[in-house]
Amino acid sequence: MTLTANLGSRLADIIGAHNVICAAEELAAHSVDGSLPQVLAGPTSAQQVAEIVRFALSEKLAIQAFGSRSKCDMGMPPLRCDISIDMTHLREVAHYDAGDLTLSVDAGLPLRELADLLERHGQFLPLAVPCFESTTAGGAVVSGIDSALRQQYGPVRDFLIGAEFVDGTGQLCRSGGRVVKNVTGYDLHKMLIGSLGTLGIVTRVNFRTFPLPTASGACLAVFADLQRAIAFRAAIGLKGFPLTDLEVLSPGTVEILRAILQRTDADVSSLLTSGAWCVYCSFDGNDSVVARVGQELALGAESTNAKGCASLPKSTDEPIGGMLREAYEWLRWAAPATVLHRIALPQFEPGILAELERFATARGLRSCLLIRAAGILYFAVFAETDDENAWTALASVALNVSKLARANRGYSVMLHAPVAVKTHVASARAPLTDEALQQRLKKAFDPANIFAPGRIVGGI
Amino acid sequence: MRRLLGKANVLDRPEDLILYEYDGSVEKGRPDLVVFPHTTPEVSQIVKIANGYQIPIVGRGAGTGLSGGALARSGGLMIVFARMNKILEIDIPNRRAVVQPGVVNLDITRAVEHAGLYFAPDPSSQKSCTIGGNVAENSGGPHTLAYGVTANHIATLELVLPDGEVARVGTLHGDPAGYDLCGLFVGSEGTLVLVTEITVKLSRTAEAVKTLLGVFESIDDACEAVVEITARGITPAACEMVDGWTLQVIEDYIHAGFPRDSGAVLLLEVEGLREAVEHQAAAIDDVCRKCHAREVRIARDSQERDLLWKGRKNAFGAMGRLAPSNYVLDGVIPRSKLPLALSRIRETGKKHGFQIGNIFHAGDGNLHPLVLYDPRDQQQFERAVAAAEEIIRMCLELGGALTGEHGVGMEKNELMPLLFSDADFALMRRVHDAYNPDSSLNPGKVFPLSKGCGEIRIKKANGSAVPV
Q: In Å, how far are A35, A436, A451, B466 from A80, measured between CA atoms?
């Protein structure tokens, strides 16, 4: 690797000195898992992004692009990072056809601004991702983080209709389009979802938008044990209700959420019963749909022997539902050292969940579970110290989690973990069945391996 | 091949091969050999044997495709998956089914409907098209408006790569682990891999459904109704438009109960909870009447509903009665531009002396203008080509796409440069070469072969499809 001595001034020639930062104290905020970039570049156009990539290519430098940096601890520690690109200066709404419910925005546009724009037209984007207030549209796509609304609206690949991005040859490419139905060419934009910046630098994203529902409701059911909570979840899943969010909280998760809510102005923590399993549901539709679903959920809770089922008015739902949307954020910081596992399983057997908790207990670690919308399980394991002993214990649990997920025809990834745990687990885990095919895709997008090398497990 | 598969599973006589030189498009391309595997190891072996001869390999399901995707453009070996037609596993609690690629689309629904489940993508050819073909083309259908195209309903794929290696992508949960390779291979039109097993996601049948027929005096009013339905945030499960001229043709053939004297009809369906369906049906009724519908009819029972859908789904068959050949376009436009697009299609028809039929997925802006022509009449043929090209360019001008559900294949590959840059093609080519480096799988598809742009291929007088 040729490391250019005057990297900053050469980048300044391309995008202007005021868009380049080299000062060590400012760069410190841009480290990823301890890896510091040499320079931070803030391009103001897609063309500038392409020029930076071409420059990096000629100098054999590694690049990582970021939005608000709210989720940059996802993924593996980068093998190299020479140039960090701040995408937040690209924030235009390039196209919005409210009548067609389609939208095209720059990657750096914050979701909050986007939501405000759409709300004025009675629409929304069902990307209810954590760190919502700061997350950028591009960051939400590239991180692949779960949206709390995916139970009803699907994951982002169901409504991302196109994208523009700079590929690993420094060319500005596009895939998809601005229409809701399109099979013209390969769906390369879908590859960018969850790619953590390893395939290209996304400069623009096109979405299908949705009409805001006229009414919505929520309820919280409390159960004595996991079996009943799971039975309730399964029963309501069969009804075809328009559930937007569906979350099952273990007693450990309830405790953390209670503690957070107690600190807020609107203390609604009393609804969450200590030591119990809680099921949170939100739903939308018209008034009569919302009324019926609310009633039937209450009846369903009763018939599965719930200890209680509270209908949540908006004032109560906002803090609880809102905080659940942010679960990724508070779970990862709930202890000095945390591993937050995301586990996808075809089905949830209470036995599997109990086994997960046993893995943690056997190593003397606390843990909690959150079964999320669309059947994704978050399993957080906490260590009370952030040291080598803790990392060894967390890594051992992580390997067991990975094995258990695979044995049950699922898979797991770590959304957050201490660097030492990430590295240990990556070196010890079994490869994915399609890892070789994934490597080929990476090579096609990024032949010189300049984009965020190493950020995806398997060295991609 | 005979040693591997047995005599009954190999065709090489010209009189047999000729049956495989067509699909549902206007294209033609005869394979040199047709084989029918029954298992994945057989497919792998077939590919390995073919590699020794360096010949093209083309996968095919039922051959109902509309863009020449399943034609042996450059000859070679055709692998027909029609006999790999077993449903291997049905998992009702998890709403999954594992099927071989030759299973007919509708047969999946038939196998699971007793449990209140169905397979959502419903191309008009669903009685005969195969799931393997749907995966290759990322097929749509009337109900994709609410439920998405094939890609949204696939969890895992088993593949055979061009070197014969067998691989698996996707997860049973449906969430990709790493890059979404399932999302890449679905819709890659047989140019990257051969798919040998598919895990599909099954949907739950809705509690209530209502089918409405909005009858309009003019196509402009019907278009306005679609724009208004979209803008009001009403999401029907399906929203199909048929123009007055096409309605008459369908009625003559199918007797579905469509009015013969209207300017256009909208066939709309709403599904969901009873309360939601009532509310949406009332809102649609309101919009249609405000847009001057002379009648909004609600199907009284499932029999009437089935008949209306039969009329819609068999419309293109009805057209075969009117002209020796027809060309179905598949452009997409933003839905807000629907009235403008339809008026431009009308102008194009007038200019070139054609009555262009319109029967299409209005709710998602997926147009299917139908140009009827006689390929023996050279002048008429040239006018048909010019009209088709004008309409496609118009869709792109309005911010649309070349194809909404039929695929690019060998029909629209020369038009791809109208939409994509050299850089886009370079990346698509690298992705292609990452999986199909020798172009042995389905060569001559998707990517333009010539440097120029704006050529469409359409059947000529001698029956051959040529770029014009």
A: 7, 22, 9, 52
Task: Work out whether strand A376-383 and strand B33-35 pair parallel, antiparallel, or are unpaired.
Answer: unpaired
Could you give the ipTM of this predicted complex?
A: 0.96
- How near does any CA of chain B get to the CA of A70, in Å? 20
Q: How far is B356 from B293, CA to CA, in rounded Å? A: 23
- Flag whether residue B8 sits within 8 Å of chain A, measured between CB atoms: no
Is the Cβ pair A183, B446 closer than 8 Å? no
**Using one digit for the tens of pLDDT, what is the confidence trace for A300-333?**
999 999 999 999 999 999 999 999 999 999 999 9
Q: What's the gap in Å between the CA of A392 and the closest CA on chain B? A: 25
Residue B75 binned pLDDT confidence (cut-offs 50, 70, 90)? very high
What is the distance in angstroms between the Cα of B235 and the nearest Cα belonging to chain A? 9
Q: Read off φ and ψ for residue A148, nearest 5 degrees.
A: -65, -20
Sheet holding A337-344, edge to edge: A308-311, A215-223, A277-285, A243-249, A366-371, A376-383, A337-344, A411-416
- Among A residues 370-409, those touching chain B with beta carbons less than 8 Å apart: 374-376, 409
Cβ(B240)–Cβ(B361) below 8 Å: yes
Best probe of the B interface among A434, A438, A446, A457, by most B CBs < 10 A, is A434
| Mean pLDDT score of chain B | 92
B324 token code pair? 């020796």
Helices (H), B362-452: 378-397, 422-435
**CA-angle at B232, arms to B228 and B238, nearest 5°:** 75
Contacts of A186 in chain B (CB under 8 A): 184, 187-188, 428, 431-432, 446
Cβ(A284)–Cβ(A244) below 8 Å: yes
Residue ranges of the alpha helices (H) in A60-187? Answer: 111-119, 137-143, 150-153
Q: Which two tokens stand for residue A226?
A: 């996991």
Judge contact between A452 and A198, C-beta under 8 A: yes
DSSP, collapsed to helix, strand or coil, labels residue A415 as strand
The DSSP element (H or E) to which A49 belongs, if any, is helix A46-59
Q: Is A1 on the interface with B (CB under 8 A)?
A: no
Residue B343: left (phi > 0), alpha (psi -120 to 50), or beta? alpha
Q: Which residues of B98-120 are buried (b: 16+ CB within 10 A; e: fewer)?
A: bbbbbbbbbbbbebbeeeebbbb
Three-state DSSP at A344 gives strand
In this complex, do B336 and A410 lie within 8 Å of one another by their Cβ atoms? no
Task: Report the predicted TM-score, pTM, of the whole model to 2 decimal places.
Answer: 0.95
Single out the residue of A203, A42, A177, A200 nearest to residue A107, CA to CA.
Answer: A203
Region A369-386 average pLDDT? 95
Structure-derived torsion over alpha carbons of residues A43, A48, A49, A55, reported in degrees to the nearest 10 = -110
**Closest approach of A234 to chain B, Cα-based (Å):** 9
Burial of B394 (0-12, 13-18, 19+ CB in 10 A): buried
Amino acid at A36: L
The answer to whether the CB atoms of A183 and B175 lie below 8 A apart is: no
**A421 in Cβ contact with A77 (< 8 Å):** no
CA end-to-end span of chain B: 38
Within 8 A of B276 by CB-CB distance, chain A residues are: 242, 285-286, 289
A237 touching chain B per CB within 8 A: no
pLDDT tens digits for range A141-153: 999 999 999 999 9
Measured in residues, chain B has a length of 468
Enter the DSSP assignment of A3.
-
Distance of CA A406 to the CA centre of its chain: 21
B453 and A CB contact within 8 Å = no
Give A242 to chain B, closest Cα distance, Å.
8
Show the tokens assigned to B224.
Answer: 């306005």
Q: Indicate the residue of A185, A376, A410 with minimum beta-carbon distance to B408.
A: A185
Nearest Cα residue in chain A from B276: A289
